[in-house]
Amino acid sequence: MIDRHGIECCDTVEVHEDLCKIVTETMPSEDELYDLAELFKVFGDSTRIRILYVLFESEACVCDIAACLNMSQSAISHQLRILKQSKLVKNRREGKSIIYSLADGHVRTIIAQGREHIEEA
Amino acid sequence: MIDRHGIECCDTVEVHEDLCKIVTETMPSEDELYDLAELFKVFGDSTRIRILYVLFESEACVCDIAACLNMSQSAISHQLRILKQSKLVKNRREGKSIIYSLADGHVRTIIAQGREHIEEA
DNA sequence: AAAACATATGAACAATTATTCATATGTTAA
DNA sequence: TTAACATATGAATAATTGTTCATATGTTTT
What we know:
Two copies of one chain form a homodimer. The first copy, chain A, is mainly α.
């Protein structure tokens, strides 16, 4: 049995083909897989996770977050942009400041599940 | 008010300092933040997500997974190594093959939450 | 109006990473 | 033992990404 890369494959052909059939049926679309990976990439940076932990406690403006995390305004602003693009965070203007807050309950759940996994392992 | 980067910060000093205090208390340790980010990075690649979707259906050997996803054996093997390091996947030998399977229920939960978030947005 | 404040953003650089290619390791069959 | 099979892995390359620096945008105060 030869796959499309020209590599011979192991001999359990029946199981093999059944599995491929089921998988191609249940696998999300290319677009959705891409979006999913993009979403998890956003969680894959400790600066962004720290920002989310700040917002777990309270909404906050950019300079508050920067001060709490002891990082530059620019770095935080760039990261907030990414968090906002993936709709994990929303913002509103209040005078000169822009106040950021969590957009969604999923953020907490996803991070909680991640921590559980790590603690178990 | 000047933060440690020498940038002037906004004027709401009281709220500001209270928030910083609470945040530093509730924020996980540096090590745990790093581990968390590392874990989510693993989900942040569509090839690895596809591999997980294969394993949602059934345990499978490397060449089965490669064939299902139409990718090279080497690419899949490299990615399985990363999935195993983060304990999302486990393996056992069976003759010439190495059979991979999900290590944990958290994998399904985390991916399900991710999909929910995307569908809502 | 100008000055000060708060945030956003483009360019650049360093660091990380996914895949390919070649090859090594380990298992089974002849 | 030798050949074939299944998987793992090191090196190399291309692509992505986080931060800094400089500067732009938008708001408020004087």
